[in-house]
Amino acid sequence: MLRYLLSRLATSVAMVLLATVVIFLIANTVPGDPVLSQLGDMAASNPATVAAYRAKWGLDLPLWERYWIFLRGLAHGDLGTSIASNRPVLDDITDYGPATIELATVGFVLSLAVGLPLGILAAVRRDRWIDHVARAVSLVGVSAPTFWLAFIMLAIFYGALDWAPGPGRLDPVAFPPDRVTGLLLIDTALAGDWDTFRDAAAHLVLPSIVLAAATLGLITRTTRAAMLEALSQDYVRVARAKGLRARLIVLGHALPNAMLPVVTLGGLAYANLLAGAVMTETVFSWPGLGRYTFRSAVTVDFPAIMAVTTIVAAIFVLVNFLVDLSYALLDPRVRK
Amino acid sequence: MSNQGISIGRRHAMLGGAGILASLLRGTHPVLAQSAQRKATLVIGIDISDIISLDPARIAQYTNPMIGHAAYDSLVTVAPGDYITIRPALATEWAYQPDGKTIRFKLRPGVKFASGNVMTAEDVKFSFMRLINVKDQPQQYIAHVDRVEVVDDHTVDMVLNDPTQPVLSIIAAPEFVIVEKAVAMAHGATDAADAKDKDTAVAWFNENSCGTGPYRLTGWQRNQQIQMVRNPNYWGGAPGYERVLIRHMSESAAQLLALKRGDIDVAFNLIPEQIATLKDDPAIGVLGATSLDFVYMAVAESPDNPALQKRAARQAIGHAIDYDGIIRNLIGGNAVRPVTFIPVGMNGSTEALTKEIGFREDLPKAKALLAEAGLPDGFSFQLAYGNAAIAGVQYQTLAQKLQADLARVGIKAELAPMDQLNARTLYTSGKAQGIITFWNPPAPENELWSGATINRVAKRVHWDVPEPVRKLVADAGAERDIAKSAALYKQYQQAMIDAAHHFVMIQPIYQVAVRKSVTGFVLTAAGWQAELAGVKPG
Q1: Nearest alpha carbon to residue A231 among A217, A242, A246
Q2: Taking the CB of residue A309, how many other CB atoms lie within 10 A of it?
Q3: Among A178, A223, B293, B452, which residue's beta carbon has the most beta carbons within 10 A?
Q4: How far apart are the first and last CA of chain A?
Q5: Do A295 and B49 lie within an 8 Å CB cutoff?
């Protein structure tokens, strides 16, 4: 088991490094000049200014040397300085990361909380109205474009009905809590500031529903399919023949066996939420990593692009690793 | 199987979910929005994602001058709508000295910083010398300022190393403001010759300010908001709001909703279609200000395109464009059109002059010019543009309009859409044949436009600028008499039309929506977008 873990770990590190090489090469082949995205028209036309700028950011060095500098920094936990924000990339990521983590986590929990029961019910009551509802929900969730859904939600629940607060993480005149984790729900709870906690929670509702929509659809469909398969197995028939209660059969016998594909999908979906919330963050003015990544790409901010890529690659690899571990918990055969 | 257990589970799950949603949403939002605190706070919705620094010596973007102008003051300023007359701010009077290269400023007496300390000549000297020695982007606009010297507590001398270059209009911009020396130095600022490496105050300046302006900066959460509080010592009278919050809102649709709901008081980035929906809203007014920005098409004497090397062919382009149609249909009439690179409203540039000497749609003339160029059947050229929009006009839409216009005389524009940064790279490196792009001024000074067109912009379009045109630009910039300078700039504009490399199409009238509960909100095109000193709750 230990040997298996170690080899998995080594493969994971190699995968992350490979991803950084690919991104480094891609980012360096786009024709846009990062100097031009940062300097004004006059400065960008002054050869001395441009040369000094290139030297400052190491843009004049050969590719392999720049990649080596990146690797050396990474080994020391230094992700470099962002060309666009002029700050250590790590500071930027600690600023923007928590907003995304909070949103993605709430969105993911929401999609699990709705998607799992819905998928189970749809399987158990196949072709009845709840199954049709589940099908409709997942179809809309998966196929509605995120930005469209975001605007519709905002226009209805904020603009027309005024049930939900507007864009942003907090009301404009609310005081943010002292920063401990950067996660507003936790920081406000730690500070005992329940008014701000409610404000932060209310601001999370619409964007997390939008973010959850696509994942919700996937989880519902996968749960339904896996449950249907499990429910058709012999052991379920045996359990029914023994006269066990339906609830026990579904939740105790079939569900654990149906969980394997759902866990795999759920893990990847969570990683996806962390990495891919650009649209939701844009519409809801959410100060998260998605917007940051997008801006880094647009301005060819190499250090930021490399850092975010490395982190996203690491998250995916880590999630995959955890999913593998959870198999062992869910399926005794894997343990052996 | 039994349905009982499952139906209980379902009902429970659904009730639970609805309960959580309702309790999350209930009540939180209206209570905060209606609080007294909200009424004493001016909330501005705007896209602030371009801001890199709020340190005046390091400002080089579009949005941060508004914050800089609210927190600090310059020695001189310009009033909204009149960008030609230089007016007093922290200096009450100024005069070129007999040596011809020194400007002496008399400082306004009794001006206090937000800290309560009195502003002196030392602060002025420190502010300029720090900006000069930090050598960030603002410095290049006053590269002809050698130094600032203290004469006495209320007098400074600005010594120029090139007195033919204009100064006053440039130092009105929010980069060239006065900071409190003692506070700045306490946080790592220095004006020494090695300030480029030794000045460590940028982090402090990003979240604080030490100026004389109506509001004091108290915080900046990147891509979230900027907070300012009233400066009780403001020399122009008590500011109307206790706090100003500049909320980052990247989506115009979100700004519109928030404005209608009253969560923000001012929305800066609405597109014309959204502005139109506000016409009947009794709570919201729309302000317009003719900007000094413009969208133009540049056409280069490209080595890859022999047709474009012929002046008559480029002039044919100028006469084949439906300028009025662009302004009427693409931007709903909310724009003006200057002759060339000097925007309407600046000295020597008016809409009347555009009618007199500017390009106008004249298809027979365009065809005659093509024949003169030896291209009676027209020609093709590549027209590049980025994925951007100005004042709600997508470059893509404008490019398609131009393509259709030019096709009427046989000129074929091959559209080349690309990423905005790639487009800028293409243009700056002189590889574009034709490109749609944008110009916005760092300060309202004619020379910053005209000087660019004969230097760096000329290189991009492969224009070998004739000596008389160079002299014209130099003379117009050095001329301190406004009327004489205007006459020279008219000649310059004529020369630009003759050369036919730049076709300025849209100088937008920016529209900003403001709730009527706010009074005294005044827009300016001078670069800092709004004058916040006089804004009050209605």
Answers
A1: A246
A2: 22
A3: A223
A4: 9
A5: yes
Nearest CA in chain B to A279: B251
Closest to B446 measured CA to CA, from B516, B359, B346, B304: B346
The answer to whether the CB atoms of B6 and A174 lie below 8 A apart is: no
Helix (H) or strand (E) holding B536: strand B536-537
Mean pLDDT calculated for residue range B176-183:
97
Test the A interface: residue of B24, B48, B144, B223 with most A CBs within 10 Å = B223
Contact (Cβ atoms closer than 8 angstroms) between residue B296 and residue B508: no
Report which of B412, B428, B439, B490 is spatially closest to residue B300, judged by C-alpha positions: B428
DSSP state of B239: -
Testing the interface with B: which of A244, A285, A296 to mutate, by most B Cβ within 10 A? A285
Which of A38, A158, A202 minimises the CB distance to B28? Answer: A202
Cβ separation of A165 and B249 shorter than 8 Å? no
Q: Inspect the interface and report whether the beta carbons of B49 and A114 lie closer than 8 Å.
A: no
Work out the pLDDT band at A71, boundaries 50, 70, 90. Answer: confident
> If you count residue pairs, one on A and one on B, with CB atoms under 8 Å apart, how many are there?
190
Q: Which two tokens stand for residue B147?
A: 């130094």
Cβ–Cβ below 8 Å for A45 and B41: no
B33-37, B135-139, B388-392, B438-442: lowest mean pLDDT where?
B33-37
Q: What is the pLDDT of residue B15?
A: 41
Q: Which residue reads 């960030």 in tokens?
A: B136
Residue type, B15: L
Which helix or strand (DSSP H or E) is residue B395 part of? helix B395-407
Provide φ and ψ at A261, rounded to 5°: -65, -35
Determine the residue type at A13.
V
Tokens of B379: 């020609």
**In chain B, which residues have their Cβ closer than 8 Å to the Cβ of A164?**
25, 29
Nearest-Cα distance to chain B for A10, in Å, is 37
Asked if A171 lies within 8 A of B29 by C-beta distance, the reply is: yes
DSSP character for A88? B
What distance in Å separates the CA atoms of residue A177 and residue A192, rounded to the nearest whole number?
10
Query: How big is chain A, counted in residues?
Result: 336
A39, A155, A240 ranked by CB distance to B257: nearest: A155
A166 vs B419: CB contact, 8 Å cut-off? no
The architecture of the domain spanning A99-285 is Orthogonal Bundle (1.10)
**Which sequence spans correspond to the domains of chain A?**
1-84+299-336, 99-285
Mean pLDDT of B22-44: 65
* pLDDT of the residue at A335: 60
Q: What is the pLDDT of residues A280-331, one digit of tens each?
A: 998 898 988 888 888 888 888 888 888 888 888 888 888 888 887 777 777 7
Q: Give the pTM.
A: 0.85
User: Chain B partners of A195 at a C-beta cutoff of 8 Å?
Assistant: 28
- Report pLDDT digits (tens) over A251-290: 888 888 888 888 888 888 888 888 768 889 988 989 888 8
Given an 8 Å threshold on Cβ–Cβ distance, is B455 in contact with A201? no
The Cα A157–Cα B261 span in angstroms is 12
Instruction: Looking at the complex, report in whole angstroms how far the Cα of residue B120 sits from the nearest Cα belonging to chain A.
Output: 32
* ipTM (interface pTM): 0.80
* Chain B residues within 8 A of A295 when measuring between CB atoms: 49
In B365-411, DSSP assigns E strands to 380-386, 389-390, 393-394
Closest residue of A to B135, CA-based?
Answer: A49
Strand blocks (E) in B89-144: 91-96, 102-107
| Long-range interactions of A182-185: CB distance < 8 A, separation 24+ | A182/A94, A182/A95, A182/A97, A182/A98, A182/A99, A183/A98, A183/A101, A183/A102, A184/A102, A185/A102, A185/A106
User: What are the φ and ψ backbone dihedral angles of A253, each rounded to 5 degrees?
Assistant: -100, -55
Contact B24 A249 (CB under 8 A): no
